[in-house]
Specification:
By secondary structure, this protein is mostly beta strands. The chain is 8% helix and 31% strand. The chain has one domain: Jelly Rolls, CATH 2.60.120.10.
Length: 242
C-alpha cells in the first residue's frame, strides 16, 4: 500500500526562515524522499539554490555545534538520527532581529536558513547523528560571518541535553568563547565594525565590501565576527573544527 506525505512549508518567528517537510512516498519496501526539487521550492517562493557545497557532519549525541552565520543561505536536515536545531537572527535591519527559533529535526524535515541567520544544533538521537548542510556559496577562509554563544542565557534556548561549556566533547573552545547575542549585535551595528558600514545586500548584518574580498580588516577582530584560524594561526584549520 502506497502512502504519500506531500511537500509542506511552515513559517517561523524569523523572517525568511522556513521549516520544510519534504515529499515522501512510502510503501512496503521503504521510503523515497524528495530531498530537494528546485521547481517545488520556486513554486513555494523559497530559495532554490543552486547549492554550491554540501557538507555532512557526524556529531555525538549531546554535543553542540554553533551558533554560526555566514554569507550563504543554507538548507539543513538530517540523513541519520535526529537533532535539535537552533537559529538566531543577527541581521541588524531584519524585522525579526534578535529572534530565536528552535526546531526538532528528524529525517524528512528540513530548515531553510537565510543568509545572516546563525545556525546551530545538538544531536538527540541514539547512535550516529548526521546533519547535512547545503550551501549556496562555497565556504572559504575569511568569508563574512559571525557567531553567537549557544549558551547565552538571553537566547532562552533549552538544549535537550545539558551542556558543560568546559567539556570539549560537547562544545568547542571557539564556540564556548563566542560573544553573546547582545555583543554580536552591538558589534554589527557599530559604524566602522566591518570594512565601513553594515550593508543589507550581502544579507543583513554583513559587511559592505568594496571588492570580492570580504575579509575583516587585518589585526582587528570584533565581537561576533569569527576570523578563521587559517589567517591567524594554523593554515590547516577549516570551518569544520568549530
Amino acid at each position: 500500500m502506497v502512502r504519500i506525505d506531500e511537500f509542506t512549508i511552515e513559517t517561523t518567528a524569523i523572517a525568511g526562515l522556513f521549516v520544510v517537510r519534504m515529499k515522501q512516498i512510502h510503501d512496503e519496501r521503504g521510503t523515497v524522499r524528495e530531498f530537494f526539487r528546485a521547481s517545488t521550492m520556486r513554486q513555494a517562493g523559497l530559495h532554490a539554490g543552486p547549492w554550491q557545497q554540501l557538507n555532512l557532519t557526524e556529531t555525538a549525541r549531546g554535543a553542540v555545534r554553533g551558533l554560526h552565520g555566514e554569507d550563504m543561505t543554507k538548507l539543513v536536515s538530517v540523513v541519520q538520527g535526529s537533532v535539535f536545531g537552533a537559529y538566531v537572527d543577527v541581521r541588524i535591519d531584519s524585522p525579526t532581529v534578535g529572534a530565536v527559533v528552535t526546531v526538532p529535526i528528524e529525517i524528512g524535515v528540513q530548515v531553510l536558513v537565510p543568509k545572516g541567520v546563525c545556525n546551530g544544533f545538538q544531536p538527540t538521537g541514539d547512535g550516529v547523528n548526521q546533519y547535512l548542510y547545503c550551501f549556496d556559496n562555497e565556504w572559504r577562509p575569511g568569508m563574512p560571518g559571525c557567531s553567537v554563544n549557544p549558551l547565552d542565557p538571553a537566547l532562552g534556548i533549552d538544549w535537550p541535553i545539558p551542556v558543560d561549556p568546559d567539556d570539549r566533547a560537547q562544545l568547542s573552545a571557539k564556540d564556548a568563547a563566542a560573544p553573546t547575542l547582545a555583543e554580536t549585535l552591538a558589534a554589527l551595528r557599530a559604524p566602522d565594525a566591518i570594512l565601513g558600514r553594515p550593508h543589507a545586500s550581502l544579507g543583513v548584518g554583513f559587511s559592505a565590501c568594496p571588492t570580492t574580498n570580504c575579509s575583516p580588516p587585518s589585526r582587528r577582530r570584533w565581537p561576533g565576527w569569527w576570523t578563521p584560524r587559517s589567517s591567524v594561526r594554523s593554515p590547516s584549520w577549516a570551518w569544520w573544527s568549530r
